[in-house]
Amino acid sequence: MTTKSRLRLAVLAAVTAAGCTLAAAAPALAADATDPATQQYRPYLHFSPERNWMNDPNGMVYENGTWHLFFQHNPSGTRWGNMSWGHATSTDLVHWTEQPLAIPQTFDGSGTAIEDIFSGSVVVDDGNTTGFGTIENPPLVAIYTSAYTGAHPTHAGKQAQSLAYSLDHGQTWTKYEGNPVYDRDSANFRDPKVFRYTNPESGESYWVMAAVEATSYQVILSRSDDLKSWTELSTFGPANATGGIWECPDLFPLAVDGDPANTKWVLVVNLNPGAPNGGSGGQYFVGDFDGTTFTSESTVSADQLPEGTVFAGFDDGTYDGWTVRNEPGNWKNGPWGDAPATGSLPGQNPVSGFAGAGLVNGFNDGDWPVGTIESPTFTVESDFVNLLVGGGNHPHVEDAQLGNEPPAGRTFFDFELPAGTTLADSGWAITGDFATDPARNPSTAGGENYLGEKRINTWEGGPKGDDNVGDLTSPAFTIEPGEDHLSFLLGGGKRTDGSLEAQLLVDGEIVRSATGPEAGALNWRSWDVSEFAGHDARLRVHDAATGGWGHLTADHFVLGAEPALVRSDETTVNLIVDGEVVRSATGTNSEGLDWRSWDVSEFAGREASVRIVDNNRSGWGHVLVDQVMFSDAAATPRIEGYDWLDWGRDYYATVSFNGAPDGRRVMLGWMNDWDYAQDIPTGSWRSAMTLPREVALVTTPKGPRLTQQVVPEFAELEQADRAYVDPAGSAGGRAIAEGAEALPISGDRVRIDAVIDPGDADAAGLTVLGDDESATRIGYDTAAGRLFVDRRDSGVTDFHPGFASLDDVAVPLVDGRIALTVWVDRASVEVFTADGRTTITDQVFPNAGADRIGLFAHGGDAALESLTVTPLNGAMWKEAGADDATAAPPSAELSSTSGPKSADRDGDYLVKVKVGKGQPTTVVRLLEDGAVIGRVYRTAESDRMVTFPIEDAAAGDHRYVVELENSAGVTAGGELTVRVAG
């Protein structure tokens, strides 16, 4: 039974006639369940789990007409954890049925988790090499990473490869008793992709595994005859992008330009972080595999420095006149140390991308220490400053402080109570878990950047850590005239549902609130409270949140005339002119350095300096800098020269299906990014998969490279009768007006095919998912020669500071034009150009109801050469597209060529559904035993009779039920029983 049908049936039960067996087949929904079809950001084209967390696709395999998608899944929550394998199946790569949990995490006899089930692959063991099944009933075998927890008795903290098998087409799984089958005594050996290799010359056949040593940037290739015993063949890497850990490899052959006599091998390596536009992404290499070794033809060799004058290379063992300010008292003189680093420092992953013998590395004593280092002044004489930068992604914050100074005013709660005095003693009302041991409050542990020795910390404030719940409410205080701002330090977990907040109460009502940043570091928050002058107020720290980051840390409440200056937790390198930061660069949460460029031509003749700042004590709280150069041209980032599966922020852990028919290679990725994955505002579920893409190798000037297209099966969803074709196509093009232009079609599920001539405009392109306030822009930057997706004003962006982004890629125009194909699905865009050689995939979270589509041009004349906007029916949760319905479909008439009472003799017959008149019937679904076995999408011009051919039906009674759907609702279409003679 499809997840969608299961949910719909529960709804139908309330509207269908008594005795209708269609509704009776559905399990009841939980009282607090929300119909996924009604959730604002639920995708209708992409697979998403009914509820809870999902990340990497796993075990993708085609078997006997069924596509199996397994995935990393938390069956117990909407954030990462409890790692197990979820499961979904499809017969067409479009419509997916969520199956029961496949491979759960492992617990010991006391209920303690000892093994998480990390990523891996599934193969059909046709030869029964494992002995788990038979030749007649070959097993599905999952090869996955056992991520052993600290509670495991023999492998604590290690990662090794294990097996599970299924003899019922993936419905149930048995973990192999001999696990693990491949153990390298490593903490980061994971993500096995296994396939069957046959030597084209000798005919020898064996299993090959590609897995990673994640933090060493290596793919480990190994072989086995039975999937149980493995021998290492060779290693590949480090190579090209090493800015983040390597994960989820894949290795497969493809014919170049479709010529089987010219076959190359593609090695995919996903990495996090270190993608070209930041965060998670996937790179690939093209080369040869001889059954033992993969040899890349596309590795980019170490580049030379760009032309220019080196101002600082840090290669002589000294800082050569730079002013170094390490944190006073740090035992390792961190963060910079006494001299430049020569590479990685203790506890640091390998640092790459620097040039020469040394670099600035702010990881002395880890991420904790803070400080600055500043160059001697120089006169700006060149147009560009080029420099290598890596480390944490913590940008410079304008109008902020590097210190942690409170604002001027009245400090009325700083929690520095005398020894032995509790919050309760000082007049605070304490409830819930915080009242069990009053001596815990205020706390003297937890958090960073608090002031003094004591603060509120709801993790420490009760016996249950993150599972503490209760309130801490202050005595009343009066907000005096002139005390316009209430400022305080706040850290800890982030909840957007009101369950974890610092609150201001006036007359018993919550008038201001703030939640944490999902970080241990406290930073300044301020509320404008001028309207409450003369009122009595109370503060309340409200914690009803449990689980990870289910706590808040708060300190130092001040009333004053001005708000506090936030602390800039930056890890940056800045250009200083006249004491002001005029240019800034930060890392990408990566130990790989790459080129950044500043156009400084406007400062010609002025004095400047370069200041490196590490003002962050948390994760990735360090910065790397090398080779500061003065040049006449901008340096090209190395990362631009590597081959990427996608240039957006949301295409990760991408691997291909094993065993795809007809020589197809179909890939699927996780449509999310580890930078913000756990914060996306999707409510009861988190994450979707990308649309499946068929990939091929085509000849390019660089050599064979991948091209990608959404699998052709999605053409089934196109509502061609409702497509908008712009008159520009027949008129030979038309001007795009300066500014924004709305099109006479809208929709949040569409395919857009456009050809745009940007002309002399600064930028031109499309807008989607728009309203009066926001839109996602997909356009071309003419001066830079880059295609972009701009989601900085796309709707809801404030759930994470790293989400609002402009993601771009260099794309040359062809005859002065760029051709785009854009798939839009409610909360995402997937953009294809250059015949699929370049793609950008991004999530967006538009405002409710935002579905406008338009054109834009800025700074000059642009032209639209052609445009077709095709609305799409849905594939999951809500399948009916636009159809002008105002009520659910009318009932239908069912019949079969055998008749409902007579016995069919050969098992071949037609089930016929005659839809009613009046309201449109857009989708007709036929179900047997709760599973959808056929569907037909209709238009207003379609024949009323819909037929479903049934072939080779087994002897016995076959009961069919029908669902009818349009955009306004679903109708139970009745049932029919056909008897097949024995």
Structure explained in plain terms:
The protein is mostly beta strands. Helices cover 2% and strands 44% of the residues. The protein is built from 3 helices and 66 strands. Strands 46, 47, 49, 54, 55, 56 and 58 form a 7-stranded antiparallel beta sheet that branches. A hairpin with a 7-residue loop joins strand 8 and strand 9. The longest helix is centred in the first third of the chain and has 10 residues. It is globular and about 90 Å long. The protein starts with a helix and ends with a strand. The relative contact order is 0.11.
What fraction of the residues are assigned to beta strands by DSSP?
Answer: 35-45%
Contiguous uncertain segments of 5+ residues: 1-32
Outline: globular
Mean pLDDT: 93
Tally of contiguous helical segments: 3
Q: Report the C-alpha radius of gyration, rounded.
A: 30 Å
Number-wise, the strands total 66
Distance between the termini: 27 Å
Helix content: under 10%
Main beta sheet, described? 7 strands, antiparallel
Secondary-structure-based class equals: mainly beta
